[in-house]
Each structure stands twice: as structure tokens, then as C-alpha cells.
Specification:
The complex is a heterodimer of chains A (454) and B (422). By secondary structure, chain A is mainly alpha-helical. Among the domains of chain A are: 101-183 and 189-243, no CATH class; 310-452, no CATH class. Helix content of chain A is 53%, strand content 4%. Chain A has helices at 8-12, 25-36, 41-50, 52-60, 66-81, 87-98, 102-115, 119-122, 125-138, 143-150, 154-159, 172-183, 191-200, 234-243, 245-259, 268-278, 284-293, 310-318, 328-336, 359-373, 385-391, 401-408, 415-421, 438-446; strands at 164-165, 204-207, 210-213, 223-225, 228-230. Chain A has a 3-stranded antiparallel β-sheet, with no helix packed on it. In chain A, strands 4-5 form a two-stranded antiparallel ribbon. Chain B has helices spanning 5-21, 27-30, 32-38, 68-73, 98-105, 124-133, 148-156, 191-194, 199-206, 214-218, 222-248, 260-274, 299-323, 390-401, and strands at residues 46-52, 62-64, 85-86, 91-93, 109-116, 166-169, 187-188, 280-285, 330-336, 356-362, 368-370, 379-380, 383-384, 388-389. In chain B, the strands form 3 sheets. In chain B, strands 1, 5, 6, 7, 8, 9, 10, 11 and 14 form a 9-stranded mixed β-sheet that branches. Chain B folds into 2 domains: 1-42, no CATH class; 45-408, Alkaline Phosphatase, subunit A (3-Layer(aba) Sandwich). The two termini of chain B are 42 Å apart. Chain B has 422 residues and is of the alpha/beta class. Chain B is globular. The chains are: A mainly alpha (454), B alpha/beta (422). Chains A and B meet through helix 12, helix 20, helix 23 and helix 24 of A and strand 7, helix 9, helix 10 and helix 11 of B.
Chain lengths: 454, 422
């Protein structure tokens, strides 16, 4: 088959390395960046020896300890969410760093971005914490079960501006968001679908912080939604929406944007096979697995074609260096760079792509890299590139430079730049002795334009 | 073909910036051609918004010192003719604000009186949200809302480019006003904490900004080009910012009083001086949450201290900008989520109210009192009634200062105010 990223048959066929696209450090690191926020040296080495499909098996399937790990972190987050501040977001960041199943966290973040539920409006850390737990619990399963669980949460209805879905207080704007943002995508529902959909949601009222069903407020009369007729309630509406082909399409488009490319504009025919995995009996896990295994994922259409969000930037610095750096300060620093967990800007999520980047955020991102890798200061020097290089037998007299290039940027830098990293004379003419410091080399690498791309 | 010097400059500046900086040329470079031609700096207008959190007592800020109702209702909090800093025969500023009276006398301060909105909320969060969004709550679901300045920032940025048009400077979380849908508004505590330490960072990137990369050889180069352009840009502005942040702690240190607001405004002044193309700055006084101007009890000392901090910090900021002849391109606007009740409470404080004055300060404001002081005998639940919708003030700033169509930000129908700006 001829390589053609626009041909669904080629694009979705599982990637088989060949002479043109050998399975090398670049592609292994690409896979780990997208599916696991970055790989450690042992992870990348193991991936190289096992090959792409076996590595993806491991990334996709939960390890035996994952359930216990997540239960423990649920408790940490719940406890921290009872007070103000960044406590539970910090635990989530730590979970992303340490999870035995980082892909699950990447997918949880995808859904957080998709639903865009923000604590700016909910004003209750504990509710947001529960919301994220639901996204994690159902994020890999069927979209129908996920949406069922999401719509059972008061936080969602607060953000949608529909605390009371009573007979006389239909909230059409919230149903419009449910249809146009959460499921079908824009342009698939008529005013009448929205109106009838709102009737299906009647009966659900937030009282004393709980979403309760009040039978007297439920409109049981038949409805006609998206061509179907029946006495639909909320559960039935969720079924109608999540089995509609447009929903699979819309979610496929969003997943391609999230996992493959900020800039790709995939055609309908390209999206169709993925959309099918996400509709009806399919599951997000199957869809994500299909994405990761695909030729498309390992093609030039995907390679370095995403801008790292602040979260991905920080984790891309931290995870490869196997560090346990503090995350409370990190949560605050990421917020200043534009990505506050629990607070996506609107229900449309973070704009992403080049929106993360401007002259000041570029400086702020470089500063974050510098602070994370500094020997002391806010992050207490807990990342130690020299020790990591030594542990893996890569401590060399170049200050670990080649090791750090391999770990952070693989083959994506020109020799000239690599040379400049161990800068001789600085602008002032004096020899910059700090340049041979692995911490400084790592910080420099992490502030290069290439590193801003996932 | 006849080529004027100006055309030549445009051509070459355009070509150079396309190569070196892609889409986002730093403002100071983009303008150099035009500036050389005109022989002067022609800066884009900059707006600095100061939020007074908690509900500022307008009646003890701009004091109706001759009003019997005022004196009757405020047995301990009233400010008499002998203390007030007189603006005219009936109104004066709080005695802690000589710095503002001086600005007023110098022709740099305008007071818009009686600002509020219909059915205004007296709940901090709800009222603040109204002021922040500029759209009253019933219109849009919470999750779909954005800040009025956020929308202005979005509107001022070219889609797909790495423009920087808005910044929040402060310790607290960025208020909802600067909440955008598209672009990122950085929240900066201080330049010192924000900037990488300099030479090391810029040296290592310099060699690389325009170099080839295997990442570009295969796919579309647009993302990498965009990041490189922003990086080249950042590298150019970094020394300016470092110089600016050091200046805060040397020659200007004496001129700025030591208040948290002052520090933030000094940072804003340095960013303005560095000329990065930022059009909208947001700072805050009072803590962001409840507290600050929320003077339910023992108001006098608290309120005076806050007003002093506001007046002296702003005046120092104005002096600093004026020193560099930048004041004509800067407009400062203050707001608070509501004013307070006329009647003093038993705890020598005041409760949540409605209409209040707003200050406009800068080199191109028309000094004076705009609009009538609200009546103290025709009240709404013990608070002055508004005569000017705050969104008309926003429209004034958008249309007459930032040169943005206010329909891009606000609902239609809010006419800008005449006679506030010159």
C-alpha cells in the first residue's frame, strides 16, 4: 500500500516500521510524548527493543497495580479538595507524573478539555475533584456511560447555567451546548431538537448541592428528537446523542486534534473509521488505541505537530528525568502560563496550539524550565540530570549533553545547535563554565523551540 | 518606478521581519520605520485597569461634603468641609488622596460619577461577574462566558499568530475580566520571577532560531515557525525587560512608594516602556476576594489606607510614564463591583450599595467631574442610584481609546461618553 495520510486504509493500518520509517528513538519518544507525557530512558530503551505495537499494548492496557494506585490518589485528591488552593490539582499533576498508566491521565485531560467544566463557576474544589474522577473512571469506556455519569453531576449543570431543569424552567442554552459542544458538534441539531431535548432533561433540580430527580417536574409527554419519537428522559437522550453518527465524528475530530496534530484538517472519509469506534458499542479506549497504532500517528502529519500545553511542557521536562518535584508550586506556575487545571477558560476548553505561545509565555516557559532544573529554589533541585545520566551509564565528559539531547529531543537538533549548548565564550567574551552543567544544558534544551512541540 | 524613502523602509522592514520574526514582530521594531519617518514615537494606546475589590465606598471617595443627608447618615464616617480635598463647592476627595487632587489640578484625572447598571447585584461574586463579563448574567450560560477585556484582547489578536495583547500583573489569580476564549493572557507577579536569567538562555537559542531542523523537513513547518518567531521575539525583548526590571530597583525605587499596588504598577510601567505591543493591563487592589474595600466595620482607617495606596501608587506610575513622555499613550481606569450604602452601620462601616464613581487618569483625559453626583435623597435601598451604565464607560474606552468596535465586546446600544477623553 502506498503511504498516503489522506487514504483511510493506509492512515489507520497499524504502523509497521520499514526502511523509510525505521523504529528509532525519535518515534519511540514521539509515542511516549503523546501517550505518556514523555518517556524515561529505560522506557524508551524498552520500547526500542520491543517494537511499536508491543509498546502500545503496554501503554493501553492497565497494569495490575493501576487500580490500587488510582484509589490511593483519589483519596489524596479528595482530602486536598476540602480546602482552598491548588492542593488537589497538585495531586493530579503528581498522578500524571507517577501513574503506571499515564495514557489514562492524558485521556482524562482530554475529557476535561472537552467538557470544559470550570471551578471559576462551580466554586467548589470538591465538586471539580469528583468531576475529574468521573472523567477518569469512564474516560476509556463507552461515550454513553461517560456522558450518563457526567450529566449526573451538579458541577456540570452549574456551568451550563441550568441548576433547575423544571417544567417551566427549560434551559435551551444548556441543551444547545450538550448537542453542539459535547456530542453532535455544530450544525446537526435544529431549534426543535434543542427544545424537545430540554423537555427530556426536565425533572433534574440541584438542591442542597445534589442533583435530584423531582418526578413532578418531569415532562413525560412524547418528544421528537433528531428524527426519533418517544417519551424520552435524560438517559434516553444520552443514548440518542451518543449513538448518533455525528457524535462519533465530532469526537474523532477532537481526538485527532489532541493526539495527532494541532493543524490537521482530516477529511470526513479519513475520520469515518475512527468515528465508528467511538459510537454505539465502541469505547474511547478502542479509538485511542486505533489512533496510537496507526500509520497516521507515526507519519510526518503528526510528528512534532502539536504545541505542548503548559502541563505537557512541565511533564515533558519532569517525567524523562524520573523526578519527584513539588507540584503545588507547579500548579500555580502553570496557571500563570495559561493552563489552570480545574479551570479551562470556557466549555470549549483551552484554545491550544499556537495560542499557548507568545513572546512573554515563551520567556515564562523558559523560566519554568530553568526553575525546575535549578539546583535550588522553588523546586528544590529535585530533578538531577547528572544522576539520571550516570544511572543509565551515559555520564560522559560532555556534561551529559548527548544523553540529554537523546532523552529530550532525539534527532531533532542540528549539530550547530548541539554545539552551541556547550557554549564556549558567551556574549561577554568570558567562558561560561556553567554551560557544561547538565542542569543548565537540560534547561536550555527545554526552552528551545523544538521542545515546545510534542 | 519612483520609490519613496518610506516605501523603501516599509518594504525592507516587512521583508526582514517576515524572515526573522514571522508573524509577530515586536512592537518597537515594527514601528521603527514609521517612527523614523515621522520623527517621533507613535505608540498604540494602552489601557491599564485597576480593580478595587470589595465594593469601594464612592461617597467617601468623592465626598458630597455640603450635603445634609450625607452628614446626617454618617455620624462618625462623614468627612467635613475642613478635611475634604475640595474639587468644587460641593464635592471633594477623601483626605488620603492629595495625589489624586494634584492629578486633577494638572488636568490628568477625570471622575465619572453615578456609574452602575440596572437591577445591580449587591452580592460580591455576582456583581463582580457582571463588571467582569460586561454581559448581565441571564444572557449566557456561565461556562460560555468570557471577560470583557478578554474579548477585547481576542479581538486585537490575529488568529493563528503569536500576538501578545493583554497581561495581568499581580499576586492573585487573574480576575475574570481578562478571561479570553482564544489567546493566553500571562499572569505575572514580577519580571524578576518571570524572566530566565539571561545570557545563557538567549545564547543557546540564538544560533538555532533560523537554523534547519529535521522536524521541519518532513511535515508542515507552520507550528515550528510560529514558535521560532515567538522565541526570536522573546530573545529580542528579554534584555529590554531585564534592564527594565533592574531599573525598578535602582533609580526609580525612590520615586515609587512601597505598596503592593505600586509594585504591580511599576511592573506595568516597565512592560509599557519595553514596548511589546501589549494593549491591555489589569491590576488589582484589595486582595481579590472579599475584604479590601468591603468595609462593613471600622471603615475609616482601612478605607483611608486603601485610597492612599491607590492615589499614591497611581500618581507615581503617572510620574514615571510622564518622565519618559509615555503618558499620552496610557489611560488608567478604576472600577469596583459596587458602591456602598449611604447610612453608616452600627459598626462604623457601610454595607453593599450600588452606583459609585470611576476614575480615568492619563495624558489625554479631560479633567473634571463627568455627570452629576447622584442624589442622596432619592435612593434605592439606601444606596445612590446610577445614571450612567458601566458598559457605556467600557464602550468609551473601547471605541475612543483602544480603537476597537465595541460590538466585538459588548452588546450593541452602549453609546460612548462624550467629554471624558480629549
Amino acid at each position: 500500500m502506498k503511504p498516503d495520510p489522506n487514504d483511510p486504509a493506509w492512515a489507520w493500518a497499524p504502523f509497521q516500521p520499514d526502511a523509510a520509517r525505521p523504529w528509532d528513538l525519535r518515534l519511540a519518544a514521539h509515542l511516549y510524548r503523546r501517550a505518556a507525557f514523555g518517556g524515561t530512558w529505560p522506557e524508551l530503551q524498552r520500547a526500542l527493543s520491543e517494537g511499536p505495537q508491543a509498546t502500545i499494548d503496554r501503554l493501553v492496557h492497565p497494569t495490575p497495580g493501576a487500580a490500587d494506585f488510582n484509589r490511593l490518589y483519589d483519596d489524596y485528591e479528595n482530602a486536598a479538595a476540602t480546602s482552598a488552593g491548588y492542593g488537589s490539582q497538585a495531586w493530579w499533576l503528581r498522578r500524571m507524573i507517577e501513574s503506571p498508566q499515564p495514557l489514562q491521565e492524558q485521556v482524562t485531560l482530554f475529557w476535561h478539555n472537552h467538557f470544559g467544566i470550570s471551578n471559576i463557576h462551580v466554586k467548589d474544589n470538591a465538586s471539580l475533584c469528583r468531576h475529574i474522577h468521573v472523567l477518569r473512571q469512564h474516560g476509556m469506556g463507552s461515550v454513553e456511560a461517560l456522558l450518563d455519569a457526567v450529566l449526573a453531576q451538579p458541577a456540570v449543570w452549574i456551568c451550563l447555567g441550568a441548576r433547575d431543569n423544571g417544567r417551566r424552567s427549560l434551559s435551551e442554552s444548556s441543551v444547545r451546548i450538550l448537542m453542539e459542544q459535547y456530542t453532535l458538534g455544530p450544525g446537526h441539531s435544529s431549534d426543535s431538537d434543542v427544545r424537545e431535548g430540554a423537555r427530556a432533561l426536565t425533572g433534574w433540580i440541584i438542591s442542597q448541592g445534589e442533583l435530584r430527580f423531582v418526578p413532578g417536574e418531569y415532562d413525560a409527554a412524547p418528544k421528537k428528537i433528531l428524527g426519533q419519537e418517544g417519551d424520552f428522559d435524560r438517559k434516553a437522550l444520552v443514548r440518542i446523542l451518543t449513538t448518533h453518527p455525528a457524535t462519533g465524528h465530532w469526537l474523532a475530530q477532537k481526538l485527532v486534534r489532541w493526539f495527532i496534530s494541532d493543524t490537521a484538517k482530516p477529511s470526513d472519509s479519513l475520520l469515518a473509521p475512527l468515528a465508528k469506534q467511538l459510537t454505539g458499542d465502541g469505547s474511547t479506549a478502542k479509538g485511542v488505541e486505533m489512533l496510537l497504532r496507526s500509520n497516521l500517528f507515526f507519519s510526518a502529519e503528526a510528528y512534532r505537530q502539536k504545541v505542548r500545553s503548559p502541563v505537557e511542557l512541565a511533564l515533558g521536562i519532569i517525567r524523562p528525568l524520573e523526578g519527584r518535584t513539588g507540584t503545588v508550586r507547579l500548579a500555580a506556575d502553570l496557571a500563570r502560563l495559561g493552563q489552570e487545571l480545574y479551570e479551562p477558560p470556557t466549555i470549549q476548553g483551552w484554545a491550544g496550539g499556537l495560542a499557548w505561545i507568545n513572546s512573554l509565555t515563551t520567556l515564562g516557559r523558559a523560566k519554568l524550565a530553568e526553575a525546575l532544573l535549578a539546583e535550588s529554589g522553588a523546586y528544590e533541585g529535585k530533578l538531577d540530570p547528572a544522576a539520571v545520566a550516570k544511572r543509565h551509564g551515559r555520564a560522559t565528559n560532555d556534561g551529559g549533553r548527548q544523553f540529554l539531547v537523546d532523552l529530550y529531543l532525539q534527532g531533532d537538533l542540528g549539530a550547530e545547535t548541539i554545539g552551541a549548548l556547550a557554549a564556549g565564550p558567551s556574549a561577554t567574551g568570558s567562558v561560561d563554565t556553567r554551560a557544561a552543567d547538565p542542569r543548565q544544558i537540560a534547561a536550555r534544551l527545554a526552552s528551545l523551540p523544538e521542545f515546545q512541540l510534542a | 518606478m519612483h520609490i519613496t524613502r518610506r516605501d523603501f523602509f516599509k518594504e525592507t522592514a516587512g521583508a526582514t521581519s517576515m524572515l526573522a520574526f514571522g508573524s509577530s514582530v515586536p512592537a518597537f521594531l515594527a514601528r521603527s520605520a514609521a517612527a523614523m519617518e515621522a520623527g517621533q514615537a507613535s505608540r498604540e494606546p494602552v489601557l491599564v485597569v485597576i480593580q478595587l475589590s470589595g465594593g469601594n465606598d464612592g461617597l467617601n471617595t468623592v465626598v458630597p461634603y455640603q450635603d445634609d443627608a450625607y452628614h446626617r447618615s454618617r455620624p462618625t464616617l462623614r468627612i467635613g468641609a475642613e478635611q475634604v480635598l475640595k474639587l468644587d463647592s460641593s464635592l471633594g476627595l477623601h483626605p488620603a488622596m492629595p495625589a489624586f487632587r494634584k492629578l486633577y489640578q494638572e488636568g490628568r484625572l477625570s471622575i465619572i460619577q453615578g456609574v452602575g447598571y440596572p437591577r445591580s447585584s449587591r452580592d460580591h461574586d455576582a456583581a463582580m461577574e457582571d463588571w467582569h463579563t460586561g454581559v448581565l448574567r441571564e444572557g449566557v450560560p456561565p461556562g460560555a462566558r468570557s471577560g470583557w477585556l478578554g474579548r477585547a484582547i481576542d479581538a486585537a489578536c490575529d488568529p493563528g499568530k503569536t500576538d501578545l495583547r493583554g497581561v495581568f500583573v499581580g499576586e492573585i489569580k487573574a480576575p475574570f475580566s481578562v478571561h479570553t476564549e482564544r489567546v493566553v493572557v500571562p499572569s505575572i507577579k514580577s519580571l524578576e520571577e518571570w524572566l530566565p536569567t539571561g545570557a545563557a538562555w538567549s545564547d543557546s537559542t540564538r544560533a538555532h532560531d533560523s537554523g534547519p531542523s529535521s522536524a521541519t523537513s518532513s511535515g508542515s513547518p507552520s507550528l515550528l515557525a510560529g514558535v521560532r518567531s515567538a522565541t526570536a521575539n522573546a530573545r529580542l525583548i528579554q534584555p529590554r525587560l531585564i534592564a527594565a526590571s533592574q531599573a525598578i530597583h535602582s533609580q526609580n525605587a525612590a520615586a515609587y512608594p512601597r505598596f503592593p499596588l505600586t509594585e504591580n504598577l511599576a511592573t506595568v510601567a516597565q512592560l509599557i516602556r519595553a514596548d511589546l505591543g501589549i494593549r491591555i493591563y489589569f491590576v488589582e487592589l484589595g486582595g481579590g476576594g472579599i475584604g479590601g474595600f468591603d468595609t462593613h466595620a471600622n471603615q475609616a482607617a482601612n478605607h483611608g489606607a486603601l485610597l492612599r495606596e491607590l492615589a499614591e501608587s497611581t500618581a507615581a506610575f503617572v510620574d514615571d510614564l510622564n518622565h519618559d513622555r509615555l503618558l499620552d499613550s496610557v489611560l488608567v481606569m478604576t472600577f469596583s463591583e459596587f458602591g456602598r450604602t449611604l447610612t453608616e452601620s452600627g459598626r462604623r462601616g457601610t454595607n453593599h450599595g450600588a452606583a459609585a464613581p470611576m476614575f480615568m487618569i492619563g495624558g489625554r483625559v479631560k479633567s473634571g467631574l463627568w455627570g452629576a453626583h447622584p442624589s442622596l435623597t432619592d435612593l434605592e435601598e439606601d444606596a445612590p442610584k446610577f445614571h450612567t451604565d458601566f458598559r457605556r464607560v467600557y464602550a468609551t474606552v473601547l471605541e475612543r481609546w483602544l480603537n476597537l468596535k465595541s460590538e466585538k465586546v459588548l452588546a450593541p446600544g452602549f453609546a460612548p461618553l462624550d467629554g471624558v477623553l480629549v
